[in-house]
Amino acid sequence: MVGQFVLLGALLWAAGASAAGAVVAGTCAVLGWVVLATALAEHDRPGLGPADHVTVTRGTLACVVAALTVDAAVGSTSEGTLVLLAGVALALDAVDGWVARRTRTASALGARMDMEVDAFLILVLSIAAASVLGRWVLVIGAFRYLLVVATWAMPWLGGGVPPRYWRKAVAALQGIVLTLTVARVAPDGAAAAFVAAALALLAWSFGTQGLELWRARPARTDALGDELAPAHEPGAQPLQVLP
């Protein structure tokens, strides 16, 4: 943890983040570590594995991107450093899984950490991209968290679905498209079309996942106590943070 906070401070200093940006980054980092410590205790894990350290580093980068997003919104910094750090964080998304497989340390907690960092980074990037294309882009970043809220009323949405590699590709696409939008590599009209297409794919991914969860929802009980509706599919995986 100490090493990650040192890295956070070094990156904020190198990027020239403002005091407000540093507060945002520090708050995000502290909250992230509180959640992580709680999860480690719940899983009876004494510490982090090799791949987990990569994932936590991605989270640190996402916190710096959040700081620079705040600074860019008030015009105190350019988007160049933001785009660079976001690109590194996105690239590292392929590294932690590789490290987990190579070291045979893959775990459910590690996968959950990876997906939560993805969700947070995409939320931050959607905020940054909203300054380019408008507030409608925020829907991309809000999708995962709206699903979490929906599970309060429909607990079956928190069930498990078999993994789908095309959903992982759709999730990765969101970060790439949003980063390119912030980098302004294409005219606003073309960027809006790309983001709209990415959003449509994300909606399709979440929609099909919701349908699978509905079909595999836990058995209900009728008035006589007999079970109705199907149970979870064999081999189902925990709910993905991003489809």
From TrEMBL:
Origin superkingdom: Bacteria
One Pfam family of this chain: CDP-OH_P_transf
Keywords: Membrane, Signal, Transferase, Transmembrane, Transmembrane helix
GO biological-process terms attached to the record: phospholipid biosynthetic process
GO molecular function, one term: phosphotransferase activity, for other substituted phosphate groups
Annotated transmembrane regions: 120-145, 190-207
One CC-aspect GO term: membrane
Signal peptide extent: 1-19
Record-stated family: Belongs to the CDP-alcohol phosphatidyltransferase class-I family.
Protein name as annotated: CDP-alcohol phosphatidyltransferase family protein
Species of the source: Pedococcus bigeumensis
Lineage per the UniProt record: Bacteria, Bacillati, Actinomycetota, Actinomycetes, Micrococcales
